[in-house]
Structures are given as C-alpha cells and as structure tokens.
Amino acid sequence: MTRRAALGTVTGFVGGVAGCAGLLDGESFPIQRSWQTGFRDPSSVAMTAAGQLLAGSHSPFRDRPIVAGLDAQSGETTWTVTVAKGEKSPLGVGDGRAYAISKAETMVSIDAATGESVWQRRLAPIDAADPEVVEFAPIPLGDRIVVPISGTEDDVPDRLVGVARADGETLFTHSLSASLSGAPGATSGGVVAPLIDGRVLFLDRTGEVGWTRDLGAPLSAVGATDGTAYLGAATEELLALETATGAVAWRGSLANTVFARPLVADDRVYVGGADYTLRAFDPASSQQLWRDDLGNAVTHGPMQVGDRLVTLVGGTHDIRGSSGTIPFSPTVLYVHEQDGTRIREIRFDDKSFDSGSIEWAQAAGETVYLGHTDDLTRVAPEAITDA
C-alpha cells in the first residue's frame, strides 16, 4: 500500500481546471460548477462528519486510488491510497474512516483525516470474479462492517461478510442464495439485502438471518429506517417492509420497476422509477402525495441536498439481471422542492463532456457530484440551493 501526501506527487489525478471556477462557466457545460478534476474512473464520493471529502476510483489499474482525500473547495487531491491491480468498490464511510474493497482481494480501512492506513485485510475469493462482485460499498454497522460480495456470474460465492471495525477480523460469513439485485440498506440492528430472485432477507449484526420474504420480482437498492425498509420492485410497486418481521406494511403503486434507492427524509418516502416519474409517499398512510413526470428513467436519486431533492435521469446505467448496461437518453438533472415543485432542469448532451456520459450522481455535504469516465465534477452549491 502506498500513500502520497502532496498534490505534486499525484499529477494525473487532478486536471488543470480544478479550483478554477471562473474558467468553468462557458456554454459547453449546462450547470455552474465549483470545479472539475481529471480524477479518472471515479466510483463514488463521500463526506465525513468532519467535512473531509473522499473519492474512490473503480479502475483496475494500480495507480488509481482505492481511496483519496480531496479538498472540497478546490478539488485538489491531498492524499491517495492505492492497492494491487483490480476493480474497486464504492466507499463506505463511518466514524471518521473510509472503507473499500478491491478485486485484488484486499479490504482497507483508512483514516479519513490523514489518509493513513488503519488496517488492510484479505477477502478471498473474489479475484477471479466478474467486476460487479465489488459493485457495492461496505456498510458501517456499529462496531463492525458488513461487506457485500456479489457478482452477476457464477464464479464466486455470493455472500455478506462481517468484519470488526477495529482491526478487520472476520466475524461472520453469510452465503446468499442468489446475487444481490441492489445495494443493501442498514438499520441499527442489521442489514436488509435484496436478491435478484425476488427474495429479501434481514441479517442481524451477528450474521444470523432474522427473516426472509419472497416478493416475487427483482428488487431495487434498499432505503431503510430503524423500523421500515423501502424497496422498488419489478412488480411495479414501492414496498414498505417492517424490519422486525419482514411483513409488507404497504404497497405503493408505480408504473414500472425502480433502478435507484428510495429516499427516506423528513417523514416522506421519495422514489424515482423507470416509469419516468418522481413520487412522494406518506409513510404513515401509504398515500401518494405528489408525482412529477420526468424526461427519462430515474437512474440515481432522488438525493437530499439541504431542503431540495436532486434526481438524475438517463446516462449509462448497469442493471443487474439479463438487461445489462443500458444507455438512456436524454441525461437530465432535476431539482425539486420537497412539495414536488420542479425548480430546475439541467440537460446534458454529447458536448457536455469530452467523451461518454455521466455514470452517476451523488450527494455529499452541501451539493452534488457527477461521476464521469474521465473526471469528477462538483456542482456549485448555489446551483442547487438558489435554483
């Protein structure tokens, strides 16, 4: 493992426009940016409670960081951690640390403030697996981390692994009967994991299965609170499950499946669907409160930024199952009030980037970040909050 402490030693990760907001206001980019870096193949971003911005790269190449610390105001890389060659997962963040795994069969725990390694541990077998085996981020859960290891081929066992937060010691391994269909969601007592065969299970913090439910169709990533887990299903429903028992508390009607994680915020549940809609439900009554028809399938979000909702539709999106990677067009970023009022719509086209399309959008801190094959972009906070 290597760590580079200064920007001067990591040339190639940061482009020449980083920190130069005045140079980024040209007509080629449709929304105001704080910065754009040459951070290649970004996997995700995260902000710690102390305000440290972190980014990871899913690139298999050794010189791409599994975790990097960035200056949130300029986009400059201040430190990086690299591991052996292999695709890398998105970041899990908790208690001032960043966690990630690599197909190099390595898991790392990094001090987010300094970039120093707390520990690294071997996780095998995943080296021979398809790249999607590291698609999901490790999940902090109190004094342990739950690691989802699940590809789309039958080349390694699908499983959830629990490791100790302090030193990475393996505490349990739970084998899954099918691949994960989306990212699990954490509650205070465990994780809710959706499977591609239409089943969902609750695994408590000791690795024991609390319940399993067959919901009959592939499921989305999980949005969870301590009492309820929310999933979109290919049965064209938003499902609310009681995390204590797995019982379906209510079903909200949609018009297609769901690709993205439902958002639970401010006593509302928000869900964006493949039916080109953004909806809000009352979790107490299960009633739909509002809907807005968008220009494409929702692939990321909605995300909460302050008192706004930000949703990405379109882009190139990987769907687990038989569909594979689907390029959706157009790619549009929407900003809504929480009452459903649409206040901004930003359309991206082929001229927005040098090549390719947006791969993801993610909220961190006070704004949204856009991940692209060749760079990472920080949307100016005022472009969201002052819209």
Break the fold down into its secondary structure elements and pairings:
Layout: E1 2-4, E2 33-37, E3 42-47, E4 53-57, E5 67-70, E6 77-82, E7 92-94, E8 97-102, E9 106-111, E10 117-122, E11 139-141, E12 144-149, E13 159-164, E14 170-175, E15 185-186, E16 190-194, E17 199-204, E18 209-214, E19 223-224, E20 228-233, E21 237-242, E22 248-253, E23 263-265, E24 268-272, E25 277-281, E26 288-293, E27 298-305, E28 308-319, E29 324-337, E30 342-348, E31 358-364, E32 367-372, E33 375-379, H1 381-385
Antiparallel strand pairs: 1-6, 2-33, 3-4, 4-5, 5-6, 7-8, 8-9, 9-10, 11-12, 12-13, 13-14, 15-16, 16-17, 17-18, 19-20, 20-21, 21-22, 23-24, 24-25, 25-26, 27-28, 28-29, 29-30, 31-32, 32-33
The CATH class of the largest domain is identified as Mainly Beta
- What share of the residues lie within helices? under 10%
- What's the CATH H-level homologous superfamily of the largest domain? YVTN repeat-like/Quinoprotein amine dehydrogenase
The DSSP helix count reads 1
- Low-pLDDT stretches are 1-26
**Topology, number of strands:** 33
- Cα shape: globular
